[in-house]
Amino acid sequence: MSDYKQTLNLPATSFAMKGNMANREPSMLKEWAAKDLYGKIRAAKKGKKSFILHDGPPYANGNIHIGHAVNKILKDIIVKSKTLSDFNAPYVPGWDCHGLPIELMVEKKVGKPGHKVTASVFREKCREYAAKQVNGQREDFKRLGIFADWEKPYLTMDFHTEANIIRALGKIAQNGHLHQGFKPVHWCTDCGSSLAEAEVEYQDKHSPAIDVRFTAVDQSIADKFSLPVSSQGKHEGTGEISVVIWTTTPWTLPANRAVSVNADVEYTLVQCDTLPNGEAGKLRLILASDLVTSCMDRYGIDKYHALGFCKGSDLELVQLNHPFYDFTVPVILGEHVTTEAGTGCVHTAPGHGVEDFEVGKLYNLEVANPVGANGVYLEDTPLFAGQHVFKANANVVETLKEHGALVHHHALEHSYPHCWRHKTPLIFRATPQWFISMDNKGLRTDSLKEIEKTQWIPDWGQRRIESMVEGRPDWCISRQRTWGVPMALFIHQDTGALHPKSIELIEVVAKRVEEKGIQAWFDLDASELIGDDAQEYIKVPDTLDVWFDSGTTHYSVVDAREEFDDIADLYLEGSDQHRGWFMSSMMSSVAMNGKAPYKQVLTHGFVVDSKGHKMSKSLGNVITPKEITNNLGADILRLWTASVNYTQEITAGDEIFKRQADAYRRIRNTSRFLLSNLNGFEPAQHSVAFEDMVALDRWVVDKAARLQTEIITAYNEYEFHVVVHKLMNFCTTELGGFYLDIIKDRQYTAKADSNARRSCQTAMYLIAEAMTTWMAPILSFTAQEIWQALPTPASGTRDEFVFTGVWFDGLATMPDDTVLGNEYWSELLLVRGEVNRVLELARKEKIVGKALEAQVTLYANADLADKLSQVGEELRFVLITSKATIEVVTDSNKAPSDAIATEVDGLWLSVAAATGTKCDRCWHVTPDVGTHDAHPDLCGRCIINIDGAGEQRSYA
RNA sequence: UGGAACAUAGCUUAGUUGGUAAAGCCUCCGACCGAUAAUCGGAAGACCCUUGGUUCGAGUCCAAGUGUUCCAACCA
Predict the structure, then answer these.
(1) How many angstroms separate the CA atoms of A517 and A478, rounded?
(2) Fewer CB near the terminus (10 Å): N or C of chain A?
(3) Which residues fall within 8 angstroms of residue A814, CB to CB, at 6 or more apart?
(4) Structure confidence by residue, pLDDT tens digits, A284-308
C-alpha cells in the first residue's frame, strides 16, 4: 500500500461532532457572565440608533413554564438580531410583583393581614416572597441563554417604581380621567370585606325561588301586543297587567331598579282565568313566549290563553310599580336575558349584580346599595332596616304576599358562591370604587386613534383590541387589597370629594414611597400632610389594580431608565395580552400622554401539546423548559421556538423536539465540516480575491450573500421560522448536496497552497463567518462555539463574541446573468440531479457503486451542449464522475436508443463503468493510472499535484 | 353562549392575482468507508378538517359546520 493519504488535505478540527449542549451550556454561561458579555454588548453598541423592546413583566410566582420560555426566547432573538443589525438594543427584564396570587401564597404561611400579623408585616412578607420568586425565575431565564440586564431588572415593587406608579395615578387624575363610582363585588358578610374570585368557592345552597309580578303603571301597555281584533274591537282581556320576574335572592328586591327583557325575544300577554293555585280571579301576565307553559305549570294556572305577542324591544321603558315600594321602575333591554329558566324577565338590582350593574349604567339606573358591610340593611331601608339579608328573605316573601305580588314560591337547591374561609354564602354588594373613565375625557376615542397608528403583528391584533376598547366599561382600578400600590388620595369623609391639593399631595407621597416603599403611605398620618384638613379628609384605603402597575411601566420604567431614550419600539407578548397588558398600557399611556406607549405590538400564540390541546397538570401533558434544557440543551429549545410560526398555537411534543435535534445536528455538522476544512487556513495570507476564485466558489459566495439578505429581512419581519428553513435548506441543498460534495476533490487532492484549494477554502471561510452570524440570535451557544473556532480574520483580530458585531460583510454578489453566475449554476444543478437519478439506476444494476466509478455521456441539444461545455473538462468534477462526455444532439444525429431521457429539455444520459484504473489518491478511475513510472498507482493529475506545480482549476 | 384566530405529507413550513399541491426533516432502499453515532444518492409519502356554493376550473373566494386555542375575572 502506498502512503499517498499523507499527501491529501484531509479535514481536521477539534470542534466536536456531538454538541452535548445540555452539559456544556451552563459552563459557557458562567464564562459569559464572568466576562460581562451583556456589558460588552452595551459598550459595543453605545451611541448606535436604539431599538427598545420593552419587556412585559411575568408575574413573580411559580416556576417558569414553556410559555414563559417561548416569550423570552422570542424577545432574545429579536434583541440579538437587532444588535447584529447594529442597533443599540438594551433589554431590561421585568417582574410584576404585587397582587392577589402572592397575597394568597403568603397568607398560607403567615395568615391573613390583621389577624396573626399586621398589614405592615404582611407586606414585608409579600415583598420577601416576591423577591425569592424573582430570583428563581431569573436563573431559569438565564439558563435559556437570554441576554439581559439581569443585575438591574425592573420590579414593580422597586420603591422608585412604586413611587412612579403613584405619580402615574396623579397624572391620570390631573388629566380628568379618574372618577368615583360604585361596582358590585363578591362580599363576605362575616369577613366584612370583598373577596377576589380566587377566594370564592361554589357550594350547593338552598334558596327561596320566587316569582314576583310588577304591575304596569299604565294598563294601555296591552296595546304594545298584537291583539286579536273582532267586531267588538280589540280583545284586550281582563285583569291587572304585570310583568313577572323570577329570582333566588328575594333580599335584593329592595334594591330593584328595573326589569330587564331581551330585545329579540318574543313575549306573550297571557290571559289567566284563575289566580295562581286555582283561586278565582283574573290576571294578565307578561312572559317570554317560550316559557309560558312552564310558568303556568309552576303557578298552578290551568285556564289561560295568549292574548297577543310582542318583541322585548317593544317594551323598553314601560313603567312598572315596584312590588312593595312606592316608586316605579322601567323595563330595560339587556343581552344577558335568556329564556333558559325563569320567566324571560329579569329582576335588575344594579347594586347586587355585575350584569345588572352594567346594564343599569346604560340606562343611568341608580346603584342602590341598602346593605351594609355586615350584611344588614341600612337604617334608612324601609320595611327591612336592621335585618340581615339572608334572614330578611322570609320577610321579603311575606311582604310580597301582603302586596299580592308573589306569584309563586318554592325552595331551590343550586350552586352558590361561598366564602372559602367562613363557608358562608356571599352576596354581591356595590362598593365605592375608582374608575378611569373611558368617555369623560375621550379616552376611548383617543385610544382608538392611537391603536390605528400602531403596527399590529399579526394584523388581526388591531381588530381584536379595537373591539375590546370599543366595548369595555370604565376601568375599575381600585382594589380592597393589602399587597398593592396604594391609591394615594385623600377624600372628604362625607362627600367623597378629592382633596383640592391632591395633585401636589401625590408628589409628596411619591417622594416618601421612593424612600421607604408603599408602607410609607400606610404609615402616614393624614395630618402630617394636610394638617387640620385631616379632620375632614381621610386616606383612601384602596390599592391599585395590578394591571395598573404593569400598564404604566411605559412611564415608571421606559421613561425612567436612562438606557431608554424614546418610547418602546416593540411590545411582544402572548395574544391574551390584547385584553391585558397591551390594553392597560395603551389606556394609561393615552390617559397620561395622549399617545400610544409602543410603535409595534407583536403577539405569539400559546404552547399546546402535539394534539393541539392546552397544557395542564390534570391532562399530564406539561412539558417544562427544564426538561428540554436538561436533556437536549437550550439551543434545541431555542431552535424549536424559532422554527415555528409562533403567531398561531405553538405545538410541543416529543417528536417535534426530536426533529429539532435532528435539524440541529445537520447545522452543527455542516459548520463542523466547514471548520475542519479551514484547518491551516489563514485568511490574511491565503484568501483568494473574489475575481480570482474558481467559478463554482464565486457562485456559492454569491448564493450566501443573497441568502444573507433574505435572512436579515426575515429577522426584521420577526419571521424566524423563515430563517431556520433557509438555513437548513442551504446546509442541505446548496452545501451538502452540491457545493461541499463537489469541492471535496479539490479541497483534498489539490496542492495545499494552490489557487484551486485556497479558492474553495476562501469560500468556505466566508460562508462559515456569515453562517455563524445567521444562527447567532437563535443558536447562541453553538454560534459562539463556532465563532471561537473560526480562524483569525484578515483584519487581524476577531471580536471575542459574535454578539457584539454585525452581520458579516465579506460576501460578494454577482448579477443574476453573470457568465457562470447564478442562472448558469442553477441549470447545472438540474442537470446534476438528472445525472444522479441515472447513476442510481446504474447502481441498482451493479454497474457502478460510487459515482467516481462511473463515466457519463450527456447527449444534449446544441444550446445545452454549449452551456455544459463552458466548464470544459471540469464538468466531471461537477458531476463527481470520473469522466463526462458531451455529445451534441441534432435532428439528424439523435441520442442512442439506450440513452435515458430526462426531465431537462434536450438532455439524454447514459452511464457506464469508467474505463481505467482507480487512482489510489484521488479515487478517480482513469486510463492513465499505471502509465507513470514514478507513481504507478496514480493518475497524472495527482502527480502534478504531488510533484509538479499543481493543477489549474477554473470552474469547479 | 358571544368575540377573535387557526386547520396543507408522520414533523416543521411554502403555496403570489383562483390554473396539475412544493421544501427540508423523519421513514424506507441503496452507496460510500477521506465529514463516519457522519456524508452522498434514490424512492415512498397529502380526500389541502367536513359539507355546500361561486367558477370552465377552488388548497386559494363565499357560507355553514367540526375541532382546537385565546378573550369574555378584585387571575397574570
Answers:
(1) 19
(2) N
(3) A698, A702, A821, A822
(4) 888 877 777 777 777 777 877 877 8
